[in-house]
Hints:
Elements: E1 2-9, E2 12-15, H1 19-30, E3 41-44, E4 60-64, H2 72-89, E5 93-97, H3 106-120, E6 143-147, H4 151-176, H5 184-198, E7 201-205, H6 207-213, H7 216-222, E8 230-236, E9 245-250, E10 252-256, H8 276-291, E11 297-307, E12 319-321, E13 327-329, H9 337-352, E14 356-361, H10 366-371, E15 376-380, H11 383-396, E16 400-402, H12 407-410, E17 420-421, H13 429-438, E18 446-450, H14 473-481
Parallel strand pairs: 1-4, 1-5, 5-6, 9-11, 9-14, 10-11, 13-17, 14-18, 15-16
Antiparallel strand pairs: 1-2, 3-4, 7-8, 8-11, 12-13, 15-18
Helix pairs in contact: 2-3, 3-4, 4-8, 5-8, 7-9, 8-14, 9-13, 11-14
Amino acid sequence: MIVHFVRQNEKKEPTCADDTIRNLIQPAFEAGDFLGKEGQTILFYPEPSGTKTQKGPKRVLIVGLGKDKPSREILRKAGGTVASTAAKTKTTTMLVVVPETEELKKSEMVECMTEGLLLGTYQFRKYKTTNEDQNDTPSTLEKIELSVAGTSSARHGLKLGQVAAEAGCKARDMANEPGSAWTPTHFAKYSLELSKQYGFRRKVLSLNNMKKMGMGGIIGVNQGSAEPPKMIILEYKTGRKKAPTLLLVGKGLTFDSGGISLKPGSGMQDMKYDMCGGAAVLAAMQMVGEEKPKRVNIVAIVPATDNMPGPHALKPGDIITHYNGKTVEVINTDAEGRLILADALSYGVDTFKPDAIVDLATLTGAVIIGLGHHRTGLLSNNDKLSEKILAAGERSGEPLWRLPLGPEYTKQLKSEIADIKNVGSKGAGTITAGAFLQEFVGETPWAHLDIAGTAWKYTEKSYIPKGPSGVGVRTLIELIRAWR
């Protein structure tokens, strides 16, 4: 397949630099069937041409970019549209003619097109058997070539797009695994692979380590489980003495039954996705290993366990003591993510003295009520850090929306018998969850990303599959790349 892109041009025929393509789509435009709208496609099957050794394309795909100025996201979605068409037509080899525009640098055009193509080709077929109807099985693209003028900047953009897309796909792979096949042990094994490949310093805290350190949050959540918890720590250093340290913390709840505060059975299978924050953090470390940022040290922490209603499970009304000595009255065992994050955050602050912290978690259903499945909720104690994250989300096509924090929300967490409760009243559930986490970061600039609404069932896009989206990975990547 060879792929070309055209711009919608009001009432005139779509704009394209290639005369052959313009002539090809002219009849379809005059018939009103193809205007070049964003995501609109038209497929041609040309007469066989070329020699035995060098045959012409079997298919020519024309993709509309719309009439708006091409943006990073428009190009990403165009790449996803190409990938989905290739899967439907069982295309295995493709040449993509990257469009030219004055609005974006050539490297950005290639970067975003590459992201869309690779993210759009994602499939998770590990557990599919081979006896299904082959006619209904999407093909896998084996080779993608890009045609673009200016090789040096294009190659740089290609590498950036490839690294980000592969990291996003890795996060999707982790999330797609069932809870029985992606446990705290699997998180630890993957971190070992990363440390060996990229030279990260690695440490994994065991249950005994956690008991000695007084990590009552993750220990409490794990009490009903058959498998002990792990806290995975990866550390990357630039080698520069004065380089700042960014701490990334991801919720690694490998399956969430709700514990004693049991969730309804309907839809509980999706709770294998409750580790998407941890997956995003480790997948972002894959990019750190590939690109080796020069301006910032990175520490990644993933507290990992499941939340089960076993005979020793944490009970509503129990009191736990976290790593930093703060006591918490557990009102609802299904508000467990904040309990394991609290230990990871306070341990990270105490051990690594970071200059900034970003945590990611599928933390509250309330964020879906407020923002739907379209934006990630952002809560922070620092305006400058928030602005950086919002800009990173915009560049990556993963938009966020900042919610407020303040003493009026923290007041909802007041407990009569402990320092705080793990849930407040029904109102502002996402904000009170953020207020809870704020109790464990001290004065360090910190931001919390609630990805419960975007980690799966995300806004429908051509490069986002059904199921886990891999959200957060590329936001972290853009944040690290732009760090000053």
